[in-house]
Design brief:
The structure holds 3 protein chains of 3 kinds. By secondary structure, chain A is of the alpha/beta class. Chain A has 11 helices and 10 strands. By secondary structure, chain B is mainly α. In chain B, helix 1 runs antiparallel to helix 2, helix 3 runs antiparallel to helix 4 and helix 4 runs antiparallel to helix 5. Classes of the chains: A alpha/beta, B mainly alpha, C mainly alpha. At the B-C interface, helix 1, strand 2, helix 2, helix 3 and helix 4 of B face helix 8, helix 9, helix 17, helix 18 and helix 19 of C.
């Protein structure tokens, strides 16, 4: 008797909670007063992914009128954060940063045993394109991508090129470059831009692939020469540096950073978040903070973001076996 | 004493054998030098050899050391064992319940248990210390430092700020 | 001459009342973050960046750099007093620092650590001012091959860390290397010993491991007797004795040089610097047997080295625009947010800011010394807390510390696991230092070797093609042979396995 009445009370309580949740999940009420939105960042505090997310979070706070709290869940190249996001309640109060191609790789590479798929997530929008660059030391004989490619073809697997890590955007860019041109490099994986750049400046490696944001200092000091930017357009941070496309190689690469909600988040809420993101990215404050960090704003709404994901996904998928040196 | 050392050294031996078996399934060598399994294989082999040397040392040195250490057992029994198991249990409780219950409740319970059951600290003192360590620290971390500690996963607990 | 003029100009900037205040605030926050569990230098600096958002650029950078090197002071305190390292770079200090605290020499250990940190920081800053150019050339000599050779040299010091039994030391060294293998293989991306847990993909997190091995193992051992003891540790004199000061001179001098040089090389971490300093001191000492029993050299060397490393790591930021460690990368972000790209051109474009910031390193280190020496008395009072309360506080501290680094409950589990392991290893008289040394150096050693192989596409001769690497490898061989000769004749049968460690 006592047990059953207790059970009933629990049921009533649960029903009340669910009702409450349903009401608060309504788009009109989103975001509810005094309720914070958690933004999961699968990378350590202080990195460039984290910095960009924090700038956006403070911008969106002003637009939405609700707190947006960044929660760092670093580890396994973002996979821990993505897993947590995919398991969060789809009510708009938990969103997460996603970095392409990283999140795709974690899904496509069977060794990573990801607990989520692409359709575990509902894209909100894209914030940043940190384009890839190919750089050599200033006194290097290579003046253009063509020089480098020709030499790499003449001496296969002798020209060393660095990445900032295994299976990063840089790594896939080099693999794609090999595929497009038929050249073969000796690819050397570093752990981060710092050690790779030191080896480039110390002439331990011949060429460096990294993101625009990581080479601004050495470009400015004249220590390195950028052979090409892996984007459709010139980078605003390095005017005059040619794109790969303008040199006859259609290569897009780098890190695309956008935001996802767990799948099943109501469309009205996703639209609201997406619109808030767009508005925030148009404010002067956000624009100037991001420009200082060398992060190029490239806003895309959910549909465009999904399209990029799919297109880049096909490229990456073919390269995954190669990325494991198999 | 000798027995426990023999057990420990055998554990090391079994452990290194298991590692060696695991590392055989990894690629040993590749076109670009050592593969993922290269170091694990050699390291577990060396660890196995060292364990064997240790076993030999124990067997050979046993008579000499039996006199000096005979009366003392290596691991505690009775109260000591109980206290160690309580600590283990308390930490397991934190691992299992910190996220569901939230940091504040779990930490309060954790500290209160340790202080009362193991420290034999007075109740009022326990309440003060456990309160500062749980509710107080939570506020320091979340409000002052912007570090997120887990809030309760149970909705009505989270709603009242726990 | 002009450097001195620039520096004087810098001091006029750094000593202005506002900037003095920012340096002070930064030093104080840094110390606090070092003491608090769960927030390492990198996360701590990142979290406090918003605090500086409204300051002028010079003030903001002065404050954030002070936070950065201030954390190195704070991390020591819990290592010595509680046997719980606040951050990785102070882990090794637990071994001898905490033993000193148990002998009533906590005050002396803390004072020597503060003085050593001060001298190390000062030395690295002087190097930055006068030798930045030539030192940068040294840093650039270190590619993957040289890095590998350096790691081999570090690991060759392992045998010197042995206690009574060489076999046990070697077993621990190998175990550390095996633990270093955990995670995603750096070349093939194949998971190794991860048991399907993605938390292990990046390898074991160092802080929960050492918290378990030291702090938790310690409490488990004490639990054998009683946890309700109301007796507190004795405090003793706060000031180091003449002998202790005399013994610290050499370690501090060597630690300053070692830390500064390692700081220069991007990829070397503060914990590597402190561990290599510890190993070097034990090797150099006339009484290596005192290490592990509360040798002041085991505190003075590493604490000097990690602070020299922190300040030395700023050199490549100014000369090359390269962040030498994850924490410096955070600092670089702070520069960028203030509209400044760090690099050599900054000396031309913003001389007042650069020299002001550099001068502030001198100021900040002085503030930290002045702040920390009197605080020693306050911190040591922590030991007056009865153990029946202290043990619970330490446990709470470790739970937060293990959890906080990556907001991961899995890391609390790792801490528990290594606590039990550490407890068991203590029972069998295994020395912990060799395991920690290889656990720290192992991943970098494997990565740099495999990276070298990627460069040469599998040709081992690359390791000897570089004169610097070849020299380092030869030195390692000499170290190995000399310690083997020193140890093996002395190790008699049967003697190796008995006896108990003084507590």
């Amino acid at each position: 008797m006592i047990l059953s009445s207790l059970r009933m009370r629990v049921t009533v309580l649960a029903a009340a909670c669910m009702l409450l949740a349903a009401v608060s999940a309504g788009a009109q009420a989103f975001p509810a007063k005094n309720k914070a939105i958690t933004l999961i960042v699968g990378f350590s505090a202080g990195g460039s992914s984290d910095a960009g997310a924090r700038i956006l979070a403070s911008g969106m706070e002003k637009v939405l009128g609700a707190k947006v709290e960044v929660l760092n869940k670093p580890g396994a190249s973002g996979q821990i954060g993505y897993t947590m996001l995919s398991q969060a309640k789809p009510n708009g109060y938990t969103i997460g940063l996603a970095s392409l191609p990283g999140i795709m790789v974690s899904i496509m590479d069977a060794d990573r045993k990801a607990a989520y798929k692409k359709d575990s997530f509902q894209p909100i929008g894209l914030q940043v394109l940190d384009a890839g660059v190919l750089a050599v030391k200033a006194d290097s004989p290579y003046q253009s991508i063509k020089d480098l490619i020709e030499d790499a073809k003449a001496r296969p697997r002798k020209i060393t090129v660095s990445t900032t890590g295994l299976q990063t955007g840089d790594h896939f860019s080099i693999l794609q470059l090999q595929k497009l041109t038929g050249a073969e490099f000796a690819i050397v994986h570093f752990d981060g831009a710092g050690t790779a750049m030191t080896s480039l400046l110390g002439k331990k490696i011949d060429a460096y692939v990294g993101n625009v944001g990581d080479v601004l200092s050495q470009l400015k000091s004249g220590d390195i020469r950028i052979l090409g930017v892996m984007d459709t357009q010139e980078s605003p941070f390095m005017p005059g540096v040619k794109t790969f496309e303008s040199q006859g190689i259609s290569l897009l690469g780098g890190s695309w950073r956008g935001y996802l909600a767990p799948a099943g988040t109501p469309k009205a809420i996703v639209d609201k978040l997406s619109a808030a993101m767009k508005t925030a990215l148009e404010t002067e404050e956000v624009k100037s903070s991001m420009a200082k960090l060398g992060l190029q704003i490239r806003y895309m709404n959910a549909e465009e973001y999904t399209k990029i994901w799919d297109e880049y996904g096909t490229v990456v998928k073919e390269l995954i076996p190669l990325s494991k040196n198999k | 004493m000798r027995k426990s050392r023999l057990i420990a050294s055998s554990i090391f031996l079994v452990f290194s054998a298991a590692l060696m078996i695991a590392s055989v399934s990894m690629e040993y060598y590749s076109s670009i030098g050592p593969g993922p399994g290269f170091f694990p294989f050699w390291l577990s082999l060396i660890l196995g050899l060292l364990s064997i040397i240790w076993i030999v040392q124990i067997v050979r040195s046993a008579p000499a050391s039996a006199k000096t250490e005979g009366e003392e057992t290596l691991f505690p029994r009775g109260g000591g064992l109980l206290r160690i198991l309580s600590l283990f249990g308390a930490l397991c409780f934190m691992i299992a319940f910190m996220e569901p219950l939230g940091f504040q409740l779990a930490m309060f319970a954790f500290l209160a248990f340790l202080l009362v059951a193991l420290g034999h600290v007075k109740t009022w003192m326990t309440l003060i210390i456990a309160g500062i360590g749980s509710f107080g620290l939570f506020r320091v971390f979340t409000l002052l430092l912007d570090v997120q500690l887990p809030q309760s996963a149970i909705r009505f607990l989270a709603a009242i700020g726990l | 001459m002009s450097v001195l003029q620039d520096l004087l100009m810098g001091f006029s900037v750094a000593l202005s009342p506002g900037n003095l205040l920012y340096a002070f605030l930064g030093s104080a926050f840094g110390t606090l973050i070092g003491v608090l569990p769960g927030i390492g230098p990198a996360a701590g600096t990142a979290l406090l960046i918003p605090l500086t958002a409204r300051l002028p650029p010079t003030g903001a950078i002065i404050m954030l750099t002070a936070i950065f090197y201030g954390t190195q002071y704070g991390g020591t305190i819990t290592s010595i007093l509680l046997n719980v390292p606040g951050e990785a770079a102070s882990a090794i200090t637990c071994i001898d620092g905490h033993k000193m605290a148990l002998k009533g020499r906590a005050g002396a250990a803390l004072s020597i650590a503060a003085i050593g940190s001060f001298i190390g920081g000062l030395f690295a800053t002087i190097a930055l001012v006068f030798l930045a150019g030539p030192l940068t050339k040294v840093a650039l000599e270190f590619g993957p091959v040289e890095f590998f050779a350096l790691m081999v040299l570090g690991i060759s010091l392992l045998m010197g860390l042995a206690g009574k039994s060489m076999v046990k030391a070697l077993m621990m060294g190998i175990l550390g290397l095996i633990l270093a293998m955990v995670g995603m293989d750096p070349v093939r991306g194949a998971p190794r010993f991860t048991f399907g847990r993605m938390e292990l993909m990046d390898g074991l997190n160092f802080v929960p491991v050492i918290m378990g091995l030291f702090g938790l193992a310690d409490i488990l051992e004490n639990a054998e007797e009683s946890l309700s003891s109301t007796v507190s540790a004795k405090v003793g004199s706060l000031m180091p004795s003449k002998q202790e000061i005399k013994d610290s001179v050499g370690p501090i001098a060597r630690g300053s040089v070692l830390g500064t040089v390692l700081g220069l090389i991007p990829g070397m971490t503060g914990s590597m610097a402190s561990f290599l300093s510890y190993s070097t001191e034990k090797k150099a000492s006339k009484h290596p047997e005192k290490f592990g029993q509360g040798a002041i050299e085991g505190v003075a060397g590493p604490e000097t080295a990690n602070n020299a490393h922190a300040n030395g790591a700023l050199i490549p930021l100014f000369t090359l625009g390269i962040p030498a460690s994850p924490t410096v990368a955070v600092l670089m972000g702070a520069f960028l947010m203030n509209g400044l790209i760090p690099g050599p051109f900054l000396f031309r474009e913003q001389p007042e800011l650069v020299w002001g910031v550099i001068a502030s390193f001198f100021v900040g280190n002085v503030i930290l010394l002045v702040l920390n020496l009197p605080l020693v008395g306050v911190w040591v009072k922590m030991l007056k807390i009865p153990y029946s309360i202290l043990f619970a506080v330490i446990l709470a501290f470790m739970v937060i510390g293990a959890y906080g680094a990556e907001s991961s409950i899995f890391d609390v589990f790792i801490m528990l696991l290594f606590g039990i392991l550490g407890y068991a290893l203590k029972k069998f008289d295994f020395p912990l230092a060799p395991m920690i040394l290889t656990l720290i150096l192992g991943p970098t050693m494997e990565r740099s070797l495999r990276r070298s192989m990627e460069m040469s596409q599998g040709d081992f001769s690359i390791l000897f093609a570089s004169p610097l690497a070849a020299t380092l490898l030869v030195i390692s061989l000499v170290v190995l042979v000399s310690s083997a000769l020193k140890v093996f004749p002395g190790t008699g049968k049967g003697k190796s396995d008995s006896g108990s460690v003084g507590k």
